[in-house]
Amino acid sequence: GWKVLLAGCGEVRDGSTGSAGNVTFEDLPPAAGCEYTVSLEARTGWSIVAPSKTAAPAGPGELATLAFTAVKIEVCVACAPPAAEGTAGDASPSTVVLRVVPGANLVTWPGGPMPVEEAFRDSPGVRAVYRWNSETGSWSKYFPGLPGYLSDLEDVVPGAVYWIISAEAGVLHAPGAG
User: How confident is the model at residue 153 (pLDDT cuts 50, 70, 90)?
Assistant: First the structure.
């Protein structure tokens, strides 16, 4: 199971999810003038969309249900992009290959910062890219091949979480990793 941590209102506890993926912290004092922060412990190879959440159950016996989403990340750390015509195609340790499947892919960007157009230039199956903008409370978006005024996502940044909508299976090359 996943290790779950709880802190707040003078309490610090941890637990692990069972086979159903749940954990319950019992006999917590009501959150009067305070709140509890619940977080998932990070795991190698997984991306947690929102690793911590808060709750403030005010009454005795009141239950707060928090849901977390973790996505398995498959990257090829020592892979290189396909060799261009007339080049040797030596492996590049600073390029990560991110595999996508048809449909919605929830990924953490493994490469370096770069303009979004450059990041997805050689990915013909990608139809849309979304990143949550916590400052505006909305989704920033990029639609390759459509008029620029429809897109407001300008760059990809290391460690940020993206929804990548793809029409076909493929790979994305993320230079600048590490």
Answer: very high
The answer to whether 40 and 3 have CB atoms below 8 angstroms apart is yes
* Continuous segment of H or E residues that includes residue 174: strand 170-175
Instruction: List the beta bridge partners of residue 108.
Output: 161
Strand pairing partners for 48? 70
CA dist list (Å): 99 to 12, 89, 156: 39, 19, 16
117: phi then psi, degrees, rounded to nearest 5: -60, -40
Give the tokens for residue 154. Answer: 């300008």
Q: With the C-alpha atoms ordered 115, 121, 125, 127, is the resulting torsion angle positive or negative?
A: positive
| H/E element, 109 | none
Structure tokens that stand for 48 in this block: 């947690």
List, for residues 27-81, the tens digit of each pLDDT value. Answer: 899 998 999 999 999 887 777 777 888 999 888 888 888 888 776 665 544 444 4
Residue 136 burial (10 A CB sphere; 0-12, 13-18, 19+): exposed
Phi/psi for 170 (5° steps) reads -175, -170
CA 10 to chain CA centroid, Å, is 30
